[in-house]
């Protein structure tokens, strides 16, 4: 937990947010400023600043994260049409919230 981290506050329920999915390790929310008809944020509950801070023991979190993405893509009906999975890494990579999260973006008209 990082005290000033928005996503830690969301994960802990300190900032109300609709969870589309939750388990022991993750929550999934809708992006507040969607870049596409489907734009979800997959948040590990563990506070990790960015991809640069991943440790070997975080490997399961990251592999499980992709399984959550697969499940959410199906639930959102974009698994067959296709979608993007995106990590922004640090400022130059467009990261503005420094708590690792995976964007799931899709649902464009064909
Ligand atoms: P990034 O640029 O990868 O750090 O992505 C941060 C994302 O969080 C942006 O796409 C924002 O629109 C989104 N965001 C910021 N605040 C909230 C919030 N309270 N609830 C949901 N999404 C948020
Ligand atoms: Zn955090």
Structure notes:
The protein is α+β, with helices and mostly antiparallel strands and 110 residues long. The protein has a single domain, classed as HIT-like (HIT family, subunit A, 2-Layer Sandwich), CATH 3.30.428. It is built from two helices and five strands. It has helices at residues 6-11, 59-75, and strands at 21-22, 26-30, 38-44, 83-86, 102-106. The chain has a five-stranded antiparallel beta sheet with strand order 1-2-3-5-4, covered by helices on one side. Strand 1 (21-22) and strand 2 (26-30) form a beta hairpin. The protein is globular. The termini are far apart. Residues 2, 5, 7-8, 47, 99 line the site of zinc ion.
- Along the chain, the helix and strand elements come as HEEEHEE
User: Which fold name is given in CATH as the topology?
Assistant: HIT family, subunit A
Domain count: 1
CATH homologous superfamily classification:
HIT-like
Strand content: 15-25%
Helix content: 10-25%
Structure classification: alpha+beta
The biggest beta sheet is recorded as: 5 strands, antiparallel
Question: Mean of residue pLDDT?
Answer: 96
Q: Please tell me the CATH architecture by its name.
A: 2-Layer Sandwich
CATH class designation: Alpha Beta
* Tally of helical runs: 2
Arrangement of strands in the largest sheet: 1-2-3-5-4
């Amino acid at each position: 937990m990082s005290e000033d981290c928005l996503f830690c506050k969301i994960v802990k329920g300190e900032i109300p947010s609709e969870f589309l999915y939750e388990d022991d390790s993750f929550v999934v929310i809708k992006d507040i400023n969607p870049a596409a008809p489907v734009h979800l944020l997959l948040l590990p509950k563990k506070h990790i600043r960015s991809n640069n801070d991943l440790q070997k023991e975080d490997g399961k979190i990251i592999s499980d994260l992709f399984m959550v993405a697969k499940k959410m893509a199906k639930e959102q009906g974009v698994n067959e049409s296709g979608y993007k999975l995106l990590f922004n890494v640090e400022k130059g990579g467009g990261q503005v919230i420094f708590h690792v999260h995976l964007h799931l973006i899709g649902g464009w008209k064909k």
